Amino acid sequence: MWLKAWHLIFMVTWFAGIFYLPRLFVYHAMTDDEAGNERFKVMERKLYHFTTPWMLLTLLFGFWMLYDYAWAAYSSMLWLHIKLLLIAILVLYQLYCGHLVKQFASDRNRHTHVWYRWFNEIPVVILFAVVLLASLKPF
Fold first, then answer.
1. Mutual orientation of helices 78-105 and 34-65 as an angle, nearest 10°?
2. Dist CA 39 CA 28 (whole Å)
3. Which residues, 6 or more positions from 67, have their beta carbon under 8 angstroms from its beta carbon?
4. Among 17, 114, 125, 138, which has the highest number of CB atoms less than 10 A from its own CB?
C-alpha cells in the first residue's frame, strides 16, 4: 500500500502543475505588455521544472507497482492497457508543455488564448478516465 500511497501523492502534485501551467499559457497569450510577458516566462519555466520531477516520480512508483504485482494481476484486462495508453498521452502532453514554455520564452507563441483554454482541458479528461478505469476496472 505504500507504493500506491506515494504514487497517488506524486500524481496529485503532478496534476496540480499540469492543470496550472496551461492556465498560465492562457494568461500569457492574452498579455500585451513586456513586464507581464517576462513575468509569465519566469512562472512557466519554474512551474514546468517543478512539475516534471513529480511526473517522473509518479511514473516510477506506477511502474514499480506494475512490476511488483499489478501486471501479473491485471495484464489480461483491457482497462489497464487503456490506462497505460492515456498515461503515455499525458507524458507527451507534459513534454509538449515544455515545448510551449520554450516557444513563449523565445517570443514565438503561435496560439491564441482560446486555443490554450481548450488545450487546458486535455488533462482533465485524462484524469477522469484514468481514475475511473483504475477504480472501477470495468473490463
1. 160
2. 9
3. none
4. 17
CA dihedral 33, 36, 41, 45 (to 10 degrees): -170
Q: Which residues contact 18 (CB under 8 A, 6 or more apart)?
A: 51, 55, 90, 93, 94, 97, 123
Distance CA 21, CA 25 (A): 7
In the 8-state DSSP scheme, what is residue 107?
T
pLDDT, tens digit (0-9, with 9 covering 90-100), for 99-114 = 999 999 999 999 999 9
Residue type, 9: I
- Which alpha helices (H) appear in the chain, and where do they start and end? 2-30, 34-65, 71-74, 78-105, 113-119, 122-136
Question: What whole-number distance in Å separates Cα of residue 79 and Cα of residue 122?
Answer: 19
Domain positions in the chain are 2-136
Q: What is the pLDDT of residues 33-82, one digit of tens each?
A: 999 999 999 999 999 999 999 999 999 999 999 999 989 999 999 999 99
Please choose, from the candidates 31, 44, 36, 25, the residue with its C-alpha nearest in 3D space to the C-alpha of residue 116.
25
